[in-house]
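Good morning,

Attaching, inline, the backbone tokens for the sequence recovery test we're adding to the shared suite. The designed sequence is right after.
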């Protein structure tokens, strides 16, 4: 009836806001504003509507308009402080609240928010003093007692904090928010059930309180109740879609459950809303690394370091070095690696352990670092209690745990082993927490086991509980500290015997791993002290290997692969991160000493080739003598492998499955053996194929032998012929016998457990 009536339109907007109908609220307020453009209240009341939809910059402009029209508008200054706090401009927010207090010193809402932002700024003593004064001036102000409790809790004065929270509840029995912080206090005290009850009470009082759902999700995640935790995070996001807390906290669950696209979307959102949160950049960097977006991942790590300063530089150095190695960016390399060797780095978590293997050949350092990280982030989880010794039974139950039961290097090595395992003496279980791809190797794995169990969406505790219910005797971890690992399953003690095998070439340094599978080359007697597990040594080679590989039909020519018809082709198809500056310099000297030779490298990203070519030029080598092999399906990759004359392995981190591929393709492999497990794998394989003459112990000997072989084509051809001939007779190719050796190891482990004996080193007889 009166479409130009400002008051009605504006009040309709306010009502819609109170009903959380923000789009309608915005429509009515924007309609009202041109009717009274110089009314400061019209601008001030539009601000919360914009803030509710995450438009805090626009809200700030509204408040600026309001105080511009009316500089003494206290409510506008207070709301302006709230918008600035949402934008994490905390010092500016503090100034806005203090401006409000200068205008009205007794304004309790301004005093309260000043105390809250002081807490945000970690000026906790000042916050407590301000909130003490507020509660004295306004003893019936429940929110003031609540925030005073938060200040006292931040100071570690938990009993006083609880008293302050109780006062808030007494003053306002229906005040839901305070129960969220009481729950946090109980969680700090280890009272998880009490904390859950507090959050439930908060949600009875206010079923639409996002913070309660976020904290309930955090608590349920801590209790390994993943499905419920995710439901709570999702509910919080639906209630407050523009708030980052729920999205950030659900990311670890999404990652563990393989939902990486959603996790990346959440992290993008969190970083947009909270750009000072270093941990969000670090988590996103991990996802970008997995996707091969190394420079983007480096940018995220550098941003995190900027936020954290020197502490961040130390904390994430291993990951940063790994990424730089992946693109062959070796600036300040020696200095940074020296920092690692001198242990001047506080390792951030398990993600920083694997890069150490590729950077430093020091098993003692590996053990110290792993033990320190495990004690900090993955100690044993005792929720399920101890496992009682069971009486012997006819068949031993072995469970393999992995994310890699699909087209993956682990399955390339182990598919035939799974198929050959003895079914009369054993029952075989697969616990798969990786993707469901439906590829040929996954189908082989699914057919090979007595039970193939998809556990991707289960918490680690629930997976361990399931393994116990199935009475698994031996749990074999095929991941270790590698991508998509679920080490927490083993921290929960999934089985009475837990084994570290194949995926991670080093010690797990955790008391809940009983054994590591090795051989006499990768872990000789003198090195056993560097492994927290008891060492089980197989008689020939620790690495499983299938006798057959699917090779593409047809034959590649050298020309098709960018190689000349003449000259020695040295090759290394290892991932770029394994190539160190020292190894590359050695390769360049080899090329200079062998005219017409080239080195054929695997192109696993688009940045490394350019950097390696530039380094070749710096070392006086024509960059055209570096040839890069693009990615292609594994069967085709194997078909082109045979064009190489000699595989030059990297050190300190050797080729693993790639070395197996080279030897299977009949390409001799030159290895420089180091001290750590990862630096001795190639030597183990060469010993198993009875070609120990290709094992050297120093970089100088490696260089000399590579040059000598490059200058003697007949000698290289003889090595190749021997390797191909020995594929029928060498121990490494005897997969059925390997299966019996590994099963013998499993039997000896179980016999010790049945006999109530502690784990001990085992050397399996040939």
């Amino acid at each position: 009836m009166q479409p130009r009536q400002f008051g009605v339109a504006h009040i309709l907007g306010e009502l819609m806001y109170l009903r959380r109908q923000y789009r309608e609220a915005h429509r009515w307020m924007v309609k009202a504003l041109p009717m009274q453009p110089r009314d400061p209240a019209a601008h001030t009341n539009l601000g919360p509507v914009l803030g509710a939809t995450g438009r805090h910059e626009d809200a700030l402009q509204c408040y600026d308009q309001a105080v511009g029209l009316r500089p003494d508008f206290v409510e506008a200054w207070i709301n302006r402080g709230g918008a600035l706090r949402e934008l994490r401009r905390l010092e500016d927010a503090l100034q806005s609240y203090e401006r409000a207090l200068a205008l009205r010193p007794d304004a309790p809402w301004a005093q309260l928010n000043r105390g809250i932002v002081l807490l945000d700024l970690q000026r906790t003593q000042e916050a407590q003093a301000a909130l003490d004064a507020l509660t004295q001036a306004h003893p019936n102000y429940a929110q003031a007692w609540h925030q005073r409790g938060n200040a006292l809790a931040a100071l570690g004065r938990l009993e006083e904090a609880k008293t302050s929270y109780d006062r808030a509840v007494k003053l306002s029995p229906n005040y839901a928010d305070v129960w969220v912080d009481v729950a946090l206090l109980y969680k700090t005290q280890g009272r998880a059930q009490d904390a859950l009850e507090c959050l439930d009470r908060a949600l009875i009082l206010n079923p639409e309180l996002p913070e309660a759902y976020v904290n309930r999700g955090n608590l349920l995640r801590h209790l390994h109740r993943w499905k419920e935790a995710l439901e709570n995070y999702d509910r919080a996001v639906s209630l407050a879609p523009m708030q980052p807390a729920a999205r950030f906290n659900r990311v670890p669950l999404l990652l563990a459950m393989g939902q990486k696209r959603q996790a990346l979307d959440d992290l993008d959102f969190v970083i947009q809303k909270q750009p000072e949160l270093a941990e969000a950049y670090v988590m996103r960097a991990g996802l970008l690394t997995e996707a091969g977006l190394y420079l983007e991942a480096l940018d995220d790590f550098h941003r995190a370091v900027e936020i954290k300063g020197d502490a961040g530089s130390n904390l994430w150095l291993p990951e940063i070095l790994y990424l730089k190695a992946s693109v062959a960016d070796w600036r300040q390399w020696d200095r940074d690696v020296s920092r690692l060797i001198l242990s001047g780095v506080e390792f951030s978590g398990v993600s920083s352990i694997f890069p150490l293997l590729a950077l430093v050949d020091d098993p003692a350092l590996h053990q110290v670092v792993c033990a320190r990280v495990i004690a900090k982030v993955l100690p044993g989880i005792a929720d399920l209690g101890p496992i009682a010794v069971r009486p012997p039974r006819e068949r031993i139950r072995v469970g393999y745990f992995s994310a890699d039961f699909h087209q993956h290097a682990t399955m390339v090595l182990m598919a035939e082993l799974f198929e050959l395992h003895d079914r009369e003496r054993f029952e075989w279980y697969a616990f798969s927490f990786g993707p469901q791809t439906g590829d040929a190797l996954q189908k082989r794995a699914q057919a090979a086991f007595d039970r193939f169990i998809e556990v991707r969406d289960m918490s680690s505790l629930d997976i361990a509980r399931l393994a116990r219910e199935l009475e698994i005797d031996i749990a074999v971890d095929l991941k270790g500290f590698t991508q998509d690992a679920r080490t927490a399953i083993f921290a929960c003690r999934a089985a009475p015997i837990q084994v570290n095998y194949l995926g991670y070439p080093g010690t797990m340094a955790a008391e809940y791993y009983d054994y590591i599978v090795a051989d006499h080359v990768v872990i000789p007697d003198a090195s056993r002290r560097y492994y927290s597990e008891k060492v089980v040594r197989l008689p020939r080679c620790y690495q499983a290997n299938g006798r057959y590989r699917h090779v593409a039909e047809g034959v590649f020519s050298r020309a098709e692969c960018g190689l000349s018809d003449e000259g020695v082709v040295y090759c290394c198809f290892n991932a770029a991160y394994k190539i160190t500056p020292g190894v590359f310099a050695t390769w360049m000297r080899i090329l200079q000493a062998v005219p017409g030779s080239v080195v054929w490298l695997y192109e696993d990203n688009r940045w490394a080739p350019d950097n390696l070519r530039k380094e070749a030029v710096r070392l006086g080598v024509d960059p055209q003598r570096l040839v890069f092999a693009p990615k292609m399906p594994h069967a085709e990759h194997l078909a082109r492998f045979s064009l190489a004359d000699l595989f030059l392995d990297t050190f300190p981190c050797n080729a693993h499955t790639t070395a197996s591929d080279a030897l299977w393709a009949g390409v001799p492999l030159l290895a420089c053996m180091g001290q750590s497990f990862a630096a001795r794998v190639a030597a183990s394989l060469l010993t198993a194929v009875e070609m120990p003459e290709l094992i050297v112990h120093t970089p100088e000997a490696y260089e000399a032998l590579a040059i000598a072989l490059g200058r003697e084509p007949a000698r290289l051809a003889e090595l190749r012929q021997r390797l191909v001939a020995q594929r029928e007779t060498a121990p490494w190719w005897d997969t059925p016998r390997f299966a019996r050796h590994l099963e013998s190891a499993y039997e000896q482990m179980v016999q010790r457990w049945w006999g109530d004996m502690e784990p001990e080193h085992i050397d399996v007889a040939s």
